[in-house]
Amino acid sequence: MGKDKGRIDKQSFGLEGQKLLRLSVPIIITGLSQVGMVFVDTLMMGRLGVVALASGSLGFISYVTVFLICFGLLSSVGVLAAYNIKAPEKVSHIVRHGLVLALGLGLLGTAVLWNIPQLLLILGQDTRVVEGATAYLHAIQWTMLLALPSIVIREFCSVLGRLRFVVIINVVAIPLNVLANYVFMYGKFGFPSLGLAGIGWATTLISVILFVFLAIYVSFRSPLRHYRILSQLPRLDPACLQDLFRLGWPVAIRSSMEIGLFTITALLMGVLGTAQLAAYQIAMQTIEVVAMVPIGIARATTLRVSFNIGNLSAIGARYSSYAGLIGGVVFSLLMALLFISAPLFIVSLYLDIGNDGNQQVLDMAVTFLSVASVFLLLDAVQMISNGALFGLKDTHQPMLLGLFSYWVIGLSSGYLLAFWFDMGGVGLWWGLALGLASAAILFSWRFHRSIERLMQA
């Protein structure tokens, strides 16, 4: 790859930026549509009462933790497929084995979710809340069987740049999800009234519909159909499964560490008081929506870096990472400006700011959003840098760097600032920011060092 040495070529860099943008937009829209369905589910849970909302939240946190760990394992499918884009048979081989792995993870995830209620009781959760969470989990658990294979198909479509249909069906799924929730929750059109479990069954139904349409699309749409990923059973290749697992498991571990950091931070906020926890949830809910953009850019960066390395273009991989970072930073700066200039508007989406009883939560939420403006920028850099490393098949060291940044730097500094220096919830937020700053620096440094080696080879 030594032939790629030299200064940045503006025309090539601009072209790579355009390719990254075209890939990022559908991934971002798909992510936003999925967040939209979660938001709708939360609103409809609230209509069933406080206990149902608490039960649904506990159940969903349990479900999404298992789901994201499995997602991390399956994200290796897109990377390996992009590396082998010039060999269609190899791509088909990888995707088919990804589907086999997804099915196995789906069965395992379903079994785990079935038994989570027992764990919740052991952890001392309220019996009434666990009862509702059990009904929800025992309905939504079946989603794992088809949602995970759908991820593999989506990765396949991403690699080939065929995401328009994926975007359309995910957007259409939002009103379908609302309708299914309404029918199963309240027992309309002859169906029994299932309450909270109805929301779980609605999600399962939507996962079936999405999988069926994706399966039809890749089976009949050219050029996807030529890969025959569903029409031909794979002859099991342990080495291929091993490659997928070896590349994916560190990503799954890093994801679980990141989830764990935010979960523990929420628990520490609860120790500080209900108002602090409520303000934290408002800020985090806002960040979760906004973060879909850098998450989409990070995923597109991973695939573009993989594609360029597969085509022996280290300079192309470097351009991909730079374009991703510029896009993520610019967007985050704009959102940070919104957080700083219009915090009351953001908080008013969640609270009645005219109610004096909400004043304490309001003041804390405004303060948290100011810190979150820094958090957003650092989070974008660390996500996109880590995505670029993933594109280089570098996952083991980033996992360790993530452990150090999230838990050693982020959690410990947050705890010290909150409880030793009496900064309260603001201290926990600054701890999160410090952890993300560490990850952003370490991931960026490692990618720069790795890509320089490739360019000198």
How is this structure best described in words?
- The protein has 457 residues and is an all-alpha fold.
- The chain has two domains: 1-24 and 249-457, no CATH class; 47-236, no CATH class.
- It is 83% helix and 0% strand.
- The chain has 16 helices and no strands.
- The protein is globular.
Fold blueprint:
Layout lengths: L9 H37 L3 H25 L1 H8 L4 H35 L4 H14 L3 H16 L4 H23 L9 H25 L17 H35 L1 H17 L1 H19 L3 H28 L1 H6 L10 H33 L4 H25 L3 H33 L1
Helix pairs in contact: 1-7, 1-11, 1-12, 2-4, 2-5, 2-6, 2-9, 3-4, 3-6, 3-11, 4-5, 4-6, 5-8, 6-8, 7-8, 9-10, 9-15, 9-16, 10-14, 11-12, 11-14, 12-14, 12-16, 14-16, 15-16
N→C terminal distance:
6 Å
* General form: globular
Tell me the number of strands. 0
- pLDDT averaged over residues: 87
The secondary structure category is mainly alpha
The largest sheet, given as strand count, sense and whether it forms a barrel, is: none
Q: Which residues form runs of ≥5 with pLDDT under 50? A: none
The topology string of helices and strands comes to HHHHHHHHHHHHHHHH
Radius of gyration: 22 Å
Q: Level of helix content?
A: over 70%
Supply the number of helical segments: 16
Strand content: under 5%
Number of domains: 2
